[in-house]
Amino acid sequence: MRPFKNVSPETVLPNYEAHEDGNGYCHTSPTGWVAWRNSRANDEVFAGSDVGWVNVSKVMRMIANQSPIYHAFPIDDAMRSHIAASDIDRHFVKKMPIQRRDEPVLMLLDGKHLRLVDGHHRLARRILDGCDSVDALVVDAAILPHVTVKMYRINQDNQWIEVPPGSVE
Description:
Elements: E1 16-18, E2 24-29, E3 32-37, E4 45-48, E5 52-55, H1 56-63, E6 70-74, H2 77-85, H3 90-95, H4 98-101, E7 105-110, E8 113-118, H5 120-128, E9 133-140, H6 144-147, E10 148-154, E11 160-163
Parallel strand pairs: 7-9
Antiparallel strand pairs: 1-2, 2-3, 3-10, 4-5, 5-10, 6-9, 7-8, 10-11
């Protein structure tokens, strides 16, 4: 059961099919067909247990025509603890160029709480290098309904079911 027809077969990556509305795609996985909604092939997606899957690439596309405001935040113990508890490729962090390290991270403002959505490796490198602050682009959590990604797979009954964030396909 293949859920989407090709928009233009010559531009589709092997084993990928774009959804006809351009807002999703499907591909094969070891467990069968998987479908993604609100994402394009090669979009960067953050999986957070509390916010679900967030399409970071779409956030950046949405704000591309605006004049984003960046804020400098001190790197505090809470940030250090968060990075220490995160699944970070330490080898990648050590090899990261300084120019990449200094690019702003993306944070989500939910009421009074800030969540790091994109830039875990950059923040880890800043901590490793002894930097005392990090620049961040802060977006309001009200953006979530527009940038949340959903993933579906076909179950044993040949029905599409939603896959919770953090599951591996």
